[in-house]
């Protein structure tokens, strides 16, 4: 399996590539979203590990463009689990700036995600911070 890793922190990217290769995966690393899209156009990758926060083009925009082009490549998103993501950012990044989607739509999808995490007995949960946004939290 050939994996493309898009991660702007070069030391983390090197460590992840080494770990993947140690486990018999072929991996290439790029350090921004624009390069990730260019590499993916070659069609030589089976999956993508994608950091959310990258220069030139963030990971969510990369994912949006991939899906708009009809690229079904499996994607694993990396992010800082304690980073607070405002509800407005969900609205802008998932539904677009010109969308008329209301915050209650985000609440519905967060509820779906919470149910999925519970069904999987995941060791993380989605924490809501009133008037601020959402973050991931490890369960004790």
Describe the structure.
This protein has 140 residues and is of the alpha/beta class. It has two domains: 2-78, Response regulator (Rossmann fold), CATH 3.40.50; 87-138, no CATH class. The protein contains five helices and six strands. It has helices spanning 10-22, 33-40, 59-68, 87-95, 103-119; strands at residues 2-6, 26-30, 47-51, 75-78, 124-129, 133-138. A four-stranded parallel β-sheet has the order 2-1-3-4. The chain has a two-stranded antiparallel sheet with strand order 5-6. Helix 2 (33-40) runs parallel beside helix 3 (59-68). The longest helix is centred in the C-terminal third of the chain and has 17 residues, at 103-119. The mean pLDDT is 87.
In short:
This protein is an alpha/beta fold. The chain has two domains: 2-78, Rossmann fold, CATH 3.40.50.2300; 87-138, no CATH class. The chain contains five helices and six strands, in the order E-H-E-H-E-H-E-H-H-E-E.
Number of helices: 5
| Range of strand content | 15-25%
CATH first level of the largest domain:
Alpha Beta
CATH superfamily of the largest domain: Response regulator
| Rg over C-alpha atoms, rounded to the nearest angstrom | 16 Å
Count the domains: 2
Give the overall average pLDDT: 87
The gross shape turns out to be globular
Count of DSSP E strands? Answer: 6
Any key phrases for this structure?
5 helices; Rossmann fold; alpha/beta; 6 strands; four-stranded parallel beta sheet; two-stranded antiparallel sheet; 140 residues; 2 domains
């Amino acid at each position: 399996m050939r994996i493309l890793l898009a991660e702007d922190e070069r030391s983390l990217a090197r460590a992840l590539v080494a770990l993947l290769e140690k486990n018999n995966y072929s991996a290439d690393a790029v350090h921004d979203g624009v390069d990730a899209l260019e590499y993916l156009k070659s069609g030589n990758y089976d999956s993508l590990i994608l950091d959310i926060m990258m220069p030139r083009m963030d990971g969510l925009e990369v994912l949006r463009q991939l899906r708009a082009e009809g690229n079904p490549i499996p994607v694993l998103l990396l992010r800082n689990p304690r980073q607070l993501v405002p509800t407005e950012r969900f609205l802008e990044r998932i539904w677009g700036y010109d969308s008329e989607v209301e915050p209650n739509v985000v609440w519905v999808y967060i509820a779906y995600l919470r149910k999925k995490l519970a069904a999987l007995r995941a060791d993380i949960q989605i924490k809501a911070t009133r008037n601020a946004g959402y973050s991931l939290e490890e369960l004790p």
